[in-house]
Specification:
The chain is mainly alpha-helical and 592 residues long. Helix content is 35%, strand content 6%. The strands form five sheets. The protein has a three-stranded antiparallel β-sheet, with no helix packed on it. A hairpin with a 2-residue loop joins β10 and β11. α7 crosses α12 and α8 crosses α9. The longest helix has 18 residues.
Length: 592
């Protein structure tokens, strides 16, 4: 036998294979701590090259070349995603007084708030625009000012479902034969019906309509077994319409039925953590350019946007009271803006535009849960996703620092000890040193954070040459590596012209012509001259039009032309066209 080299010296002894107990012990040690992703040499070289429009350093966003934002920056586009929203279907199976026994079990499960707080309407452009900001490696939204994400605190406040308890775990994917057996055992259906239904779904799933048709007629006068069957069917229908809504849009996996085997134990699961892990995975899938649909519980995502960006998207319900889930605080509506305009609005966002701590008034009824500081992996069956509160400290009222490198979760087949890791969550929350100091003002971060973030992130989604317009504030938010001299001139000229247009009819002719001359000087390249000129005097105070920088957050720009008759026309300018100035106030032309 040839000698083998170990640790720098040569050994002629035969290599001993590890025993079974040693192999199991090694696997446990690898699984108890999250693993960092491994990359070969070629992929590492690709990471160091960066990407157009950012990130410059791809040590964090390693798979960005597959991201929809990378395709958009290169000129390709994707239409708004199709949404899987079952808010209306929940109304087709009501638990009235004749089904009070079923409703009592649902209440004990902790899932009853889902019946009333699900939104029936979801905005495709708004959710699609935020989906383009999601980064799978960090499980956060990458916005111009930093990272944000949906936290366990958000889930608990928006939905009022439990976020503590046992993890939802499945040892392996469910086969069709096993699904048929579960339907017969736990729902009391026949083997023929079960086989026919799974065969129609082409998977170990059942249609939501099939559950309603077969179990919605059972009332309190039915037998105890029938009531148990109907209760399990209702709970399966409920989670299939809400927490675990997948892209099939019509069915729900039978695997979740196992969670309702013992109806007295349904309330012991961490439903909120499972919902969050499932939502993370759906967002991750939708970041691929070829994907055209978004699943998950969209009420959670939409309400989270309403809570943190109230001035941009929300429509509050004035009759809301704080004892109810925060999802009921909002009146969902379809955003009239196009996807491109929403991209540009998000590109102009600043830290001051965000409501970082929206649940201050809600704390009396729903205190802050300490488990929201948990740092590790959350799980929903075979779906395992990292949860990083250290990347979004501002959402907890703390100063944002440069976070540690994100970790990749272990593979589902090697996550044996994740349940124990979660059960001991008090040992895995961020310590006070990692949380840092409390903010002096909302959205505060350390001085070096933005320089680091600009290097590792893709802050701006819409390319500058594809934008519908620029403002000074929007241009200043662009990363330095995307700026150019011509873009800067265009931005300054467009910002000036938009300011003139938004001034309306109350502007004088001198102001109008002065602005045009300055815009012309900027465009032809007279930077030294234009820099020395002062900005034209603002419109009279009687005109209360918002500034161009703030206008996109409230209403589209109003183009008012021609000027009113009360405004005297400007003095003729020397030149061949001085005597043919035309005003388009009416169909008849007026010559001066």
């Amino acid at each position: 036998m040839p000698p083998c080299t170990r640790g720098g010296y040569t050994s002629t002894a035969p290599r001993r294979r590890p025993t079974g107990s040693e192999r199991r012990r090694r696997v446990q040690l690898r699984e108890i701590e999250p693993e960092h992703p491994r990359h070969d040499r070629d992929e590492t070289e690709e990471v160091l090259e960066g990407a157009p429009g950012g990130p410059i350093d791809r040590c964090i966003l390693r798979s960005f070349h597959k991201h929809v934002a990378a395709k958009i920056w290169l000129g390709e586009d994707r239409a708004p995603l199709k949404l899987v929203n079952h808010g209306a279907k929940l109304q087709l199976w009501e638990l009235d007084v004749e089904r009070s026994r079923i409703y009592e079990t649902v209440q004990r499960s902790g899932l009853a708030p889902l019946i009333s707080c699900s939104h029936r309407v979801a905005s495709r452009p708004m959710l699609s625009a935020f989906c383009e900001r999601w980064q799978p490696e960090t499980t956060t939204f990458h916005l111009p000012f930093g990272e944000m994400t949906i936290t366990l605190d958000d889930v608990a406040s928006i939905l009022h479902i439990p976020i503590t308890g046992s993890m939802i775990s499945f040892s392996q994917p469910l086969r069709v034969d096993d699904a048929n057996a579960l339907l017969v055992e736990l729902l009391g259906t026949t083997d023929v019906k079960a086989s026919r239904e799974t065969e129609q779904c082409h998977s170990p799933s059942v249609r939501l309509q099939w559950l309603r048709e077969n179990f919605s007629t059972i009332t309190d006068v039915s037998s105890d077994d029938d009531i148990d069957f109907a209760t399990r069917a209702f709970l399966l229908h409920l989670v299939g319409c809400t927490l675990f809504a997948d892209k099939s849009a019509t069915s729900v996996g039978v695997v979740y039925l196992e969670l309702f085997r013992d109806l007295s134990m349904v309330g012991s699961y961490a439903w909120g953590a499972a919902c969050l892990a499932f939502m993370y995975r759906q967002l991750t899938t939708a970041t691929r350019f070829e994907v055209r649909q978004l699943g998950g519980y969209l009420t959670l995502l939409q309400a989270w946007i309403y809570e943190h960006f109230p001035e941009m998207f929300s429509s509050p319900d004035m009759a809301y009271i704080e004892s109810r889930p925060r999802a009921l605080r909002w009146r969902p509506h379809v955003i009239p803006d196009s996807l491109q305009s929403l991209r540009e609005r998000l590109d102009r966002l600043q830290s001051s535009d965000v409501c970082w701590e929206p649940y201050v008034d809600h704390r009396a009824e729903h205190p802050f849960p300490d488990i929201a500081w948990f740092s590790g992996c959350i799980k929903c069956g075979l779906v395992v996703e990292p949860y990083h509160p250290e990347r979004v400290l501002r959402q907890f009222g703390h100063i944002q620092t440069i976070p540690p490198r994100p970790f990749a979760p272990p593979r589902p087949d090697r996550s044996i000890l994740l349940d124990q890791y979660w059960e001991r969550w008090t040992d895995h929350v961020l310590i006070d040193q990692s949380r840092g100091r409390r903010c002096h003002y909302s959205g505060e971060s350390v001085a070096e954070y933005m320089a680091w973030y600009d290097r590792i992130s893709h802050r701006i989604v819409q390319p500058p040459h594809l934008r519908s317009g620029f403002t000074t504030d929007a241009r200043s938010s662009l990363p330095s590596h995307t700026a150019s001299t011509s873009d800067s001139r265009n931005a300054r000229a467009l910002s000036l012209l938009r300011h003139v247009i938004s001034g309306g009819r109350q502007q004088s002719g001198d102001y109008f012509w002065g602005a045009l001359n300055e815009a012309h000087s900027i465009l032809v390249g007279s930077d030294e001259t234009s820099a020395s000129h002062s900005t034209p005097s603002p419109a009279p105070a009687s005109h209360s039009t918002p500034s161009p920088a703030m206008r996109p957050f409230f209403c589209p720009p109003t183009f008012v032309y021609p000027p009113p008759a009360s405004v005297a026309p400007p003095a003729p300018v020397a030149g061949p066209t001085a005597s043919t100035t035309v005003y388009v106030r009416s169909k008849r032309k007026k010559k001066t």
